[in-house]
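Project outcomes to date are best conveyed with an example. Our students and postdoctoral researchers have been running inverse folding experiments weekly, and each run begins with a structure described purely in tokens. The record below, which covers 545 residues, was selected by the lab manager from last quarter's runs and is presented without edits.
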């Protein structure tokens, strides 16, 4: 007995040290997110969020083909924290704090150990920050938070024996249905968990019940879920209806999107796509998470409800993995809502080993080493140092941020300098137009849109270009831009279906090319961005090239 007590006492210190290290790592990572800036997609979401706050509507007043919920998140972030790039990142950080809390609640219920939630939340945040600025702040990033709270609501069980408890239960189910639906409005595959969760709960609540009782329970569950979902959908469609944007929504999602999806997808390739997606999921992001997921399947359960908890997590993962495969692009951010739930499942497996092993000091060292190696391998330590250096050193801030937020064919310095030039030479309130994909310049320059087409993909894709070009020219003549920015070297065959950049496409676009020639004068370039200023504003009025 004395020996057992000593063993338990000795095992407490490494566990406390593990939790302290996880807490420090979580705080370090959560403080990185507010220092991220925008990639291309985030610039789109922010500009549309700006239009929403000004009384506009997605699709009608600012064209994009992503589901709608992300624009409202950016609008909410701007309204709460201001118009800078850091606003949505602060909101994102707070979201991941809530995700950690939800993980802890879920882990107490199903794994009988809140420590699983702490480990899972830290691994989830590590994978998230690893994606860096370009692949965070995405619909999937916020979708993971809605999904875990949907599971927490779905699995809430009040104390039985009163009408009040029944009301609480029904409200929690309805809330779960609403949260699953918001996730679907961020990215449709995320909503697939709705069906899995409802099915799991129905089976649990009707198991062992007699004929009449199981029917009532199944009906109550289904009605609550559907009512919560319907409330969200009704609110959204009423918004579109009042904004007269339903036809724009229909044209984008029932005409444009099917063609876009078909660029890379074919049913014959589906098995290979699923295999490739699974390989990316297991091998690309986190060694600890993948190892833990295998362990949770191989080792016997530690808690009575462990299998049920794992089933709920798999009900979230399966439709998402299929959705990523169907998108056929496998961008890292497509896994943004998969990685947190993988981390929670992996944490459950690692915790099993932790509780069963006698060599906890050795296992602790292994975990901490792998965490540090993971961060170092992905340059997270160096990038974190540079972000804090930029935060502390005003003189070097712009240069460091430009370096950290330049990737692929996007130069952050070029966008910043272009926006600064526009603020200096285009009167406030005068609209501009960007023939390219650098939507963030609208936000950085604080200049309004001349057209709903905030980037030129609709005018570059074969199946849509003729109608979109006609609509664009109508907008430009109706609201002439003070400046037009033309991008070069922005080839995106995975989006446009061809290898032409914006400048090359312009040569085939007679309407815009003619407008530039007749009413605008080439003025200045910043790397691959050429600025054409309206003749009424040209050098005679003292611009600064």
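After processing, the design step wrote out the following sequence:
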């Amino acid at each position: 007995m004395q020996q057992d007590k000593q063993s338990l006492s000795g095992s407490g210190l490494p566990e406390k040290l593990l939790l302290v290290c996880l807490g420090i790592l979580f705080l370090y990572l959560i403080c990185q997110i507010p220092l991220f800036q925008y990639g291309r997609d985030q610039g789109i979401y922010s500009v549309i969020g700006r239009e929403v706050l000004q009384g506009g509507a997605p699709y009608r007043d600012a064209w994009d083909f992503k589901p709608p919920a992300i624009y409202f998140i950016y609008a909410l972030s701007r309204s709460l924290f201001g118009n800078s790039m850091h606003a949505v990142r602060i909101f994102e950080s707070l979201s991941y704090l809530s995700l950690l809390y939800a993980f802890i609640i879920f882990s107490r219920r199903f794994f009988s150990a809140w420590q699983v939630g702490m480990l899972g939340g830290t691994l989830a945040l590590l994978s998230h920050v690893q994606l860096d600025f370009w692949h965070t702040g995405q619909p999937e990033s916020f979708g993971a938070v809605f999904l875990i709270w949907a599971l927490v609501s779905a699995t809430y069980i009040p104390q039985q024996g009163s009408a009040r408890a029944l009301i609480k239960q029904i409200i929690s189910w309805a809330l779960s249905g609403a949260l699953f639906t918001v996730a679907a409005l961020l990215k449709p595959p995320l909503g697939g968990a709705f069906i899995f969760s409802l099915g799991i709960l129905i089976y649990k609540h009707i198991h062992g019940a007699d004929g009449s009782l199981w029917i009532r329970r199944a009906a109550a569950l289904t009605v609550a879920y559907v009512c919560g979902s319907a409330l969200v959908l009704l609110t959204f469609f009423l918004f579109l209806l009042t904004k007269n944007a339903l036809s724009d929504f229909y044209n984008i999602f029932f005409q444009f999107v099917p063609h876009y999806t078909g660029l890379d997808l074919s049913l014959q390739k589906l098995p290979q796509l699923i295999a490739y997606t699974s390989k990316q999921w297991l091998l690309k992001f986190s060694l600890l998470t993948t190892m833990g997921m295998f362990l949770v399947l191989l080792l016997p359960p530690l808690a009575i409800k462990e299998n049920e908890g794992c089933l709920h997590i798999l009900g979230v993962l399966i439709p998402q993995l299929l959705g990523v495969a169907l998108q056929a692009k496998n961008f890292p951010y497509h896994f943004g809502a998969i990685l947190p739930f993988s981390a929670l499942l992996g944490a459950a497996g690692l915790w099993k080993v932790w509780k069963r092993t006698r060599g906890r000091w050795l296992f602790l060292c292994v975990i901490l080493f792998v965490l540090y190696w993971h961060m170092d391998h992905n340059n997270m330590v160096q990038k974190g140092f540079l972000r804090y250096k930029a935060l502390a050193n005003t003189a070097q801030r712009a240069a460091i941020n430009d370096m950290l937020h330049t990737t692929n064919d996007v130069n952050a310095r070029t966008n910043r300098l272009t926006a600064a030039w526009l603020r200096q030479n285009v009167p406030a309130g005068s609209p501009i137009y960007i023939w390219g994909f650098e939507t963030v310049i609208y936000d950085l320059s604080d200049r309004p849109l001349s057209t709903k087409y905030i980037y030129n993909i609709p005018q570059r894709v074969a199946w849509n270009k003729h109608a979109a070009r006609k609509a664009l020219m109508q907008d430009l003549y109706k609201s002439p831009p003070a400046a037009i920015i033309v991008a070069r070297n922005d080839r995106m065959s995975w989006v446009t279906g061809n290898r032409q950049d914006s400048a090359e496409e312009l040569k085939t676009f007679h309407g815009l090319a003619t407008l530039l020639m007749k009413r605008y004068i080439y003025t200045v370039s910043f790397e691959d961005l050429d600025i054409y200023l309206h003749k009424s504003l040209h050098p005679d009025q003292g611009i600064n090239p």
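The first strand starts at residue 432 and ends at 435. The CA atoms of residues 371 and 377 lie 10 Å apart. The training component of this project remains on track.
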